[in-house]
Design a protein that fits this description.
Layout (H helix, E strand, L loop, with lengths): L5 H6 L18 H5 L6 H7 L6 H5 L11 H12 L8 E8 L20 H11 L9 H5 L1 H7 L2 E5 L12 E7 L4 E6 L13 H12 L5 H12 L6 H11 L8
Parallel strand pairs: 1-2
Antiparallel strand pairs: 1-3, 3-4
Helix pairs in contact: 5-6, 6-8, 10-11
Length: 253
């Protein structure tokens, strides 16, 4: 277990102020907040035992700011994007996925809705060669090239493909004008359990992209600097980090 940091000592309940042991079923607890009925609390208690998922297979790092299942589609699309001479050459796109109806959204209504769309996230990767915070704006969704490519997408939900993130895969087929067909299979995006570790610099690409939507570069870099040393921060350092993270938006740098 990692040692407690100054941060955790301030955030976790102390012995004098213990957490509610009924956190799941207590009024305004987890179950009432997320379930109307049907949650079997006793069954959960009977089966919840080590190893816990956070330890095995461990946590996943999201390299793109969208629902994790879409990362399979994004990864496959980024691989094929390098082989496509021009987005205008794309005639048809077929994505084969597990049965994940909640991310089968052929026509997202907003940029935010695109975070939960296999079609939109894959189309963004094919068109732009990257997927970041600015991908999920209404302006990007409305552009003619995006609307055109979304109309060329077909998603096949295949019940023979396992739906669990640690077991699933996706297939992507891009048909180009003139006959060429590009195909690939994604068994897991970077950051998924069992994939090669992500370097700190790779992870910071996403961190900086996210922070840049609200903070000037100097403030963003100061947050990164403090967060890197969070286990060793004193009260002053924690206060600085909280002040920067909770500051009013400064606008993009």
């Amino acid at each position: 277990m990692p040692r407690h940091s100054v941060w955790s000592r301030r955030c976790w309940p102390s012995a004098a102020s213990p957490a509610n042991v009924g956190v799941f079923e207590v009024a305004q607890g987890y179950v009432p907040a997320f379930y109307d009925n049907g949650f079997k609390i006793e069954e959960m208690r009977a089966t919840a035992r080590p190893p816990f998922r956070i330890a095995s297979p461990g946590y996943a790092i999201k390299m793109f700011p969208s629902q994790f299942g879409t990362h399979f589609a994004i990864t496959a699309a980024l691989e094929l994007q390098r082989q496509i001479p021009s987005p205008a050459a794309i005639r048809r796109v077929v994505l084969t996925s597990p049965v994940m109806a909640y991310v089968n959204r052929p026509r997202p209504e907003t940029g935010l809705d695109g975070k939960f769309s296999l079609q939109y996230t894959a189309a963004s990767a094919l068109l732009d060669g990257k997927v970041g915070i600015r991908t999920f704006t209404d302006e990007r969704l409305a552009k003619p090239d995006m609307q055109d490519l979304l109309g060329k997408f077909e998603v096949v939900l295949d019940p023979s493909i396992p739906g669990r993130f640690e077991e699933m895969h996706m297939l992507l087929r891009v048909e180009l004008d003139g006959g060429p067909v590009l195909e690939t299979r994604c068994d897991g995006p970077r950051g998924k359990w069992g994939t090669p570790p992500i370097s700190e610099e790779e992870h910071l690409v996403k961190v900086r992209d996210c922070l840049a939507t609200r903070l000037q570069p100097a403030s963003a870099e100061r947050i990164i600097e403090l967060a890197r040393r969070i286990d060793d921060l004193d009260a002053v350092g924690v206060g600085q980090l909280m002040q920067l993270a909770g500051a009013l938006p400064e606008g993009p740098g």
